[in-house]
Amino acid sequence: MSRSKTAATATAAKSSTSTSKVAKRPTKAAGSTKKISPYNKFMKANLAEYKKKNPNVSHKEAFAGVAAMWKTAAENPKNAIAAK
Asked: Which residues belong to any copy of the YABBY protein C-terminal domain (predicted)?
């Protein structure tokens, strides 16, 4: 009987330690941030100004208006390539 208890204990010990572990993602170093794209910089700089000039426009319409401005903006890398 002692053998069956030991086997049962060993099996129980294996099942509790053999559970699958989820791999942890590496954490970012403190203070590290993702590089802001030229589009995001343009939107941040121009959206507030657009809303001041057009106070009755919804956020969605203002965002669309500034996005349309981006197509011809000098900050747009695609326009810089076309200018060369």
From this structure: 18-72
